[in-house]
Every structure is written in C-alpha cells, then in structure tokens.
Amino acid sequence: MSADPRLSAPATARNRAPILDVLRAHLPPAGLVLEIASGTGEHVAHFAAALPALQWQPTDPVPEYRASISAWSAGLPNVLPPLPLDATETPWPIQHADAVLCIT
C-alpha cells in the first residue's frame, strides 16, 4: 500500500473561507484561473469545488507538491493536472489565463 501523497498546511483550514469570499467578488464568472505556487493543493481543491464554473490550473515547481495537488483535486473535473512552473523562469508552460492567483 502506498502512502497518501496529500500534504497539509494548517493555515489553509483557517484562511480558505475568507480568501474564497474575496475570490467570489473578483474572479470572472467563468474562464481559466492560473494558480502560481499551489503548494499542497488544498486551496485549489476548495476553490474549485466552490466555483465549478471556473477551470483551475494549479502549478508548482516541486514534484512532491504536484503529487499532493493531484491527490487533493482528484475527482474535481474543473482542476487540470498541475504544471511544473517556476515563476522566475521563462517560458511559462501556459499561454493564457483569465485570472492569476498566488496565495502566500
């Protein structure tokens, strides 16, 4: 049996609802949201479940985080497979997004 690849950040449980409130007010009603440095993937999974009209593109340069993102977002049809993106390097592996999100 393999270990669960889902990583967890305690702050996510505390801040995901207030962040979602802000996103509801500022994101377009539909389109592609690029998340830079998705980390554990807990945020993107929460936001994608709450905002199903949006397509979500998570990214992270760290393979362990991309595995966690995939595990947290499993079963969510509006979350694309995570891309290996280091925002300090070009070219980026995406050509277009309707919104860009980075939660630090």
What can be said about this structure in brief?
The protein is an alpha/beta fold and 104 residues long.
Word description of this protein:
This protein is α/β, with parallel strands linked by helices. The protein has one domain (10-101): Rossmann fold. The chain contains 3 helices and 3 strands, in the order αβαβαβ. Strands 2-1-3 form a 3-stranded parallel β-sheet, with no helix packed on it. β1 (31-35), α2 and β2 form a beta-alpha-beta unit.
Write the layout of secondary structure elements.
Blueprint: H1 10-26, E1 31-35, H2 42-50, E2 54-58, H3 63-72, E3 99-101
Parallel strand pairs: 1-2, 1-3
CATH fold call: Rossmann fold
- Return Rg in Å: 13 Å
> Which structural class fits the helix and strand makeup?
alpha/beta
Low-confidence stretches: none
Helix content: 25-40%
How many beta strands in the DSSP annotation? 3
Q: Which CATH top level class fits?
A: Alpha Beta
Q: For this entry, what is the oligomeric state of its chains?
A: single chain
**Would you tell me the overall average pLDDT?**
96
Strand order of the largest sheet: 2-1-3
Please give the domain count.
Answer: 1
Shape: globular
CATH homologous superfamily annotation: Vaccinia Virus protein VP39
Order of helices and strands: HEHEHE
Q: Ends: how far apart? A: 33 Å
Strand content: 5-15%
